[in-house]
Amino acid sequence: MRGKPMGDETRAREDLAAAFRWAARLGLNEAVSNHFSLALCDGPEAPFLIQPSGRHFSRVRASELLKIGPEGGVLAGDGQPDPTALHIHGSIHRGVPAARCVLHTHMPYATALTCLQGVDLEPISQNALRFYERVAWDEDFGGMALDDDEGARLARALADKPVLFMGNHGVTVAGRDVAEAFDRLYFLEKACEAQVLAMSTGRELRRVDPATARLTRDQWEAYPDGPENHFAEIRAILDEESPGYRD
Q1: Is 130 helix (H, G, I), strand (E, B) or coil?
Q2: Spatial CA neighbour of 50 closest among 40, 30, 36, 70
Q3: Is the pLDDT of residue 3 over 70?
Q4: What CATH number belongs to 9-239?
Q5: What distance, in Å, lies between the first and last C-alpha atoms of the chain?
Q6: Distances, alpha carbon 170 to alpha carbons 28, 152, 207, in Å
């Protein structure tokens, strides 16, 4: 993952708030759990934005996002982050600086795969091939992430991959900015949905051969402006229907 300038903080806040709102529309969140964060600049000491504890994704506003310092303290905003959010996201931003935007959810189909023994994201759909050899798995679930050791372990598991399947837990998706990370989150869930539905038939899965899988993955990565166009449309719809996210 490559770093690039984030632009001004206002735009960063609006983009992250839009991601919360759209995730709620798609049913990717879980009550007031799960968390999204965005580093405001490059480097392991960068401050990052995250929602305050107890806020539902559908109600997050740009102005209420907390700014968190490298040591975990609140630099700006009212309230505190959820402790698991602080340990997971803080550790990833420190340990994987290229992960500028970090999205953690328990979205249903991806989480279902984390609950199965010996199951991987199979190369059976065009969407799944986007993530071919780009997925890390954490098989050592040890309870809720309530300390920095657990967060650091998850950061090491993610390493240079954009996706971490967290066994018996959920997924974490990273990107250079909100548009890239959210586009990945969306298509990951669609890939997992297709796999769960295919597995539910009891029939043999039709796997794509490795050479074609790598070709398709590289075509995904070279496809022009896909994440940017996707997220621009998300913001345009919200601007028309629910502009309060920008407040």
Answers
A1: coil
A2: 36
A3: no
A4: 3.40.225.10
A5: 31
A6: 11, 17, 24
